[in-house]
What does this fold into?
Amino acid sequence: MHWTEKGGLLLLAGALVALSGPFAATTASGAPRTAAPQAAYAQPAYTLRQAPTAPADPADGPDPIDFAVVVDQSASLSDKDLARETEAAALLSQGEISERSRAAVIGFGSSEKPGQSPVREVCTLTVADAAGRERLSDCVQRLNHRDRDRTGPGTDFPAAVRQAVTRLTEGGPAAGRRAGAPVVPKVVFLLTDGKLDVADSPEYGTDRDSRQSNGERRLTEELARARAAGVQIWPLGFGGEIDRAALTAMAEGGYRGACSEIPGSVPRMRVVGTSAEIDKALQETFAAARCARIAHGTVGKPPADLTVSIPPIATDGSLTVAKHDPKVQVTYYDPAGRKVPVRGEFDGSSFEVSGQNGPVEALRVKNPLPGRWRVHIEAPEGHRDREVAVRAIWQGRLRSTVVLDPASPRAGEQVKVEVRMQTRRGVVITDPRQLTGIAVAADLKGEGFRPVALRLADDGKAPDATAGDARFTGTLTVPAGATGDLELVTRMEAPGITSDHRPLHARVGEGVPLVAAGLTVEGVTVHPGGTVRGTLDVTNNDTAPHTLRLALADQTPGAELTVTPATVTAQPNRATRVPFTITVGKGTPLGELGGQVSVVDTGDGDRVLRGAFLAVRVVAPPSWWERWWKAVLAGAAVLLLAGAVLGIRLMARHHRRDMTGVTLELCQDGRPLDSLTVRRGQSPGGAFVFAVDEPYGAPPTLRRLPGGGSSTAHVLRRTGAGELLLRPRGGGQVPVRPGEPTGLGDHELVVRGGRPAPPGGRGSRGSRGGRGGRWSGKSAAPGGRTDSGGRTGGAGDAAPDAFPDAGPDAGGDYDGNF
It folds into this structure.
């Protein structure tokens, strides 16, 4: 294959690679896979379309708690320790994720002389809404200033516990209720660097020894009071003088209830080495007590960008920034790189910042965008010497979607319960890794029997169909004495995850049901505007027809779903199969669709006969390019191939017409007079123009005419088929055979075929100081000479391939003398 043909094929291959390049990074389905930006989240780069959300009902948010942060201010603490305690207390009050929670901050020491009090309530019980968090940010700073005249140097644990329990229980047993809601948990977080010290407090006795023993007894009494009032105690000690036994007794002496059955949420004591560790340890303790999770971010000195990650399952959270210095300014960016407001709504999330003028700042977020959040910190000169830390406390409040099979069970009948979870936005949880450690249970209540509890599992063991599909299944038998209404309530428990405890109501069926139904819905991926197919199988054992209605429930917010047909008539004493479709409206948000479809007997008080989960994922419709790229690529390849073939043919034709290396000999009576070899580029369009000069007294010579010729010009032409034609001056074209003489006026012209000269090479010429190709042997032309036209005359060496077609029949032996 000649180099021109190879070049054409390489050009074709390169173009095909260039065309296919955009498709190299495509998914198996043909959809383009875009590269994710280098941000934490390390989240994939895709357009995130959130479901619209309605204003959240307060009860829809995280459950509130009432808590008191009790801080040791005894003389054993240095000013640095006290400042760290103050910041730790501020982290809790600012980072609380529920706007319905209440917080109090209490400092304590001892009372050893008139005018002193063992406790100092710096922040009264305050609702942690936007205004309340600002008040807490201001008042907590009063812990930094100790008043020796009003608070003694000892450590009066009994007084501290008594003050906290009193504040958290003011108003009696109903004080912890919010508009009929369950009792709000009450928690005390106690920070101390030492042990009980009331030896100099007259309140406890007349001498040091009796005071200490009386203090221990009083502490036991106060813990018993806390236990009776439902107040948990979570002690946190730091330093090397900690009485671990006393801290353990406080944790175990208070109320032992927990926010869930998950290990770790029962009160326990914790000890860290120094006060530098208490902010991290206290936030971890707070998360455990509140059934939340904590994500530790990065640290750095201003100016810097800090990051912390929030998972997809989180529905409520707070980003806390321990900046130490109020001069540090903070800017927050979501995982999409967008600056978020410090207050208000943005892209389906709600934001509320507090503590901007204090040492601890927090951004409370409802419905946070999952991924890596960036926190940018700046500070003026002189305020950049301390490291700033960012953390996130979050909780996922999930909604349960329940399918009961059969929907109206009979007394004594076994029932299958299937539960699926989704977030407040309606995002269905399908990744089991987000539910690690979760325990799912259900309680069945009703008339005529005691409540029945059951556990649900996602382990693939019967009755669960598939392990790890984030659908939890269990079975129970409806008690034989059940009559009337049934109420099923599901419970989900895991660190950082709570459920809404919404009841599912059903009714006990009587005898063999007259109408039975089966329902299946295909699990598919659709575009907005697409449809989902389903099948309803119904058997009517009644003597009269029944009208059944297909209903949709627990839909994803913003979903636009319609079912067709909406009603079906079940004919008497007949089994019927009815196909139906669910249309996904064009405004439906992208992602997994939550909810279920159920069939209801309208003639039997809207009794639910059967329900089925929707397993539908809505994705963006493909673009024009995504739909037609294969056809475009195929067409482009065909055009490119045709163009390449045409180009190769044109190049081959040009190559055949090229006369590079062809040698023209001017002869007379068979005797060479002069020769001229065509060099590269001297035969444009396959034509070589030359003239015969006949100077007086000298042999005639050949001369190329670069300007296109004149009246004295001759033209030697090679056609696309390789044929040589000579058009003498003023005459018509005549064919020329290589090696055979052709008449040229008074002379003859012999053309000897050549081949393309090497790149940059020169045509064959007579001897000229060793330049170019030269004749071998000696010229017979008298007075021979060489010039720039490559003419022979005189002696000179010739390249062996100067006349590749030369032979004994071509007019002489070119290796000897002419």
Remarks:
- The mean pLDDT is 81.
- The chain is about 15% helix and 35% strand.
